[in-house]
Amino acid sequence: MKTLIIPIALLSLTGLAWADELDDEFAALKQAVTAKKDADTIKKLAGSTSALARKTASATQPTDVEPDSWKQRVGFAKEVETYTEYALASAAIQPGAEAKVVDLVDALIAQNPKSKYLDLCASAYIAALGKQGGAAKQLDGAAKVIAASPENEDALLVLADGNLQKSPDRALTYANKLASVAKAKAKPEGVSEAAWEARKNTLLGHAYYDAGAIAGQKQGWVECDRDFKAALPYISKEPSMLGTAYFFLGLCNYQLGKLTRRDRSTARSRLRSRDRCKRRQTRTQWPCSGTWAPRWFGNNNHVRLCGPSARPWPCGCSCSYTFDDRRKPVTHRR
C-alpha cells in the first residue's frame, strides 16, 4: 500500500503563536490516527477539525495580524483540511474497520466529493457496499468514486458489469475505459508482480467480456467475435464466463459465415447475369440503318437498350423492336 506522508510544512506551521481551537483539534486528530483509534473517534474528530479549518481559511484577516503571518495561517488551515480527508480514508482501510468503511467513506465524500484520498479507500468502500447494500448501492458508490477518480479500476469494473443489462451503452463506455486503464497502469507500490498480473488479467477479462456481450446483444458480430477472442486468455479459469464466451463465438461464426455465403451468392449471381447478358448479345442490321448491338431480356422476344445510359436507338427514336423466333425484326414500334 502506498504510504502517505504529511507535508513537513504542515507540521512546522503548528508552531505558530496562535494556540487556538484549530490547533487543539488537529493535534487530537493526528494523535488518534497515529494510535489507530476506533473509527467513530476519528470520524468525529475529522468532522470537527474540518469545520474549524474551513472557518479559519474563509475568515477575514484581523487588523492586528501581519499579512504574511495570516497567509501562513490560512495555508495551515487548508493543509489541516486535507489531512482530515486522509484521516478518514486511512481509517477506512485499517484491519477490523470493515463494519465502519461505508460510514467513513461517506463522510469523506460529504466533506469533499473529489478528494484525492478517495482513490485510497475505493476498493474497500465498493466491496463493503456490495456486502451491505447490494448491487444498486454498489453502483451508486462506484459512480461517486469515478467522479473523484475517473481511472479507478475498481469503480470502472463495477460500473461495466453492473450496467451490462440495464444500460449497455454506458457499460460499453466503462468497459472500454477499463481495458485502456488496465493496459496502461503501472504496478502499484507494495504489490508483487504476480499479484498485479493476476489483478490485471481479471480487469482485462471483464472488460473484453462485457464489450463482447454488448456487441452480441446489438448483433455486431465482427466486434463480438473480436472482443470475446481477446477475453479468452484472461477468463480461462472462469467457467461461467468461458461458457458464455464460447456460445457467442459460435454464434458469431455462424452469423459471419452466413453473411459471407450471402456475399458470395450475390457475387455469383451478378457474374451469371453479366455472362448471360454477354452470351445473348447479337449484332443486327436495323431497318432504320446502322448496326446496333442489343441485349436480350425477358421471354417475349422484346429487346430494348441495356446499359449505363438511356440512349435512343440508332434510328434516333426511343422505340423498341419486336422480333420473331429467329430474332429477325418484324415490327418497329414507337
- The H-and-E topology, N to C, reads as HHHHHHHHHHHHEEEEEE
Strand adjacency order, main sheet: 3-4-5-6
In angstroms, what is the radius of gyration?
Answer: 38 Å
Number of domain modules: 3
User: Low-confidence parts lasting 5 or more residues at pLDDT below 50?
Assistant: 1-19, 277-334
The first-to-last residue Cα distance is 92 Å
Mean pLDDT: 77
Shape: elongated
Number of helices: 12
Overview of this structure, please?
- The protein has a 4-stranded antiparallel β-sheet with strand order 3-4-5-6, with no helix packed on it. It has a two-stranded antiparallel sheet with strand order 1-2.
- It has 3 domains: 1-146, no CATH class; 150-279, Serine Threonine Protein Phosphatase 5, Tetratricopeptide repeat (Alpha Horseshoe), CATH 1.25.40; 284-333, no CATH class.
- The chain has 334 residues and is mainly alpha-helical.
- β5 (320-323) and β6 form a beta hairpin.
- 63% of the residues lie in helices and 6% in strands.
- The protein is elongated and about 100 Å long.
- The chain is built from 12 helices and 6 strands.
- α4 (67-92) runs parallel beside α6.
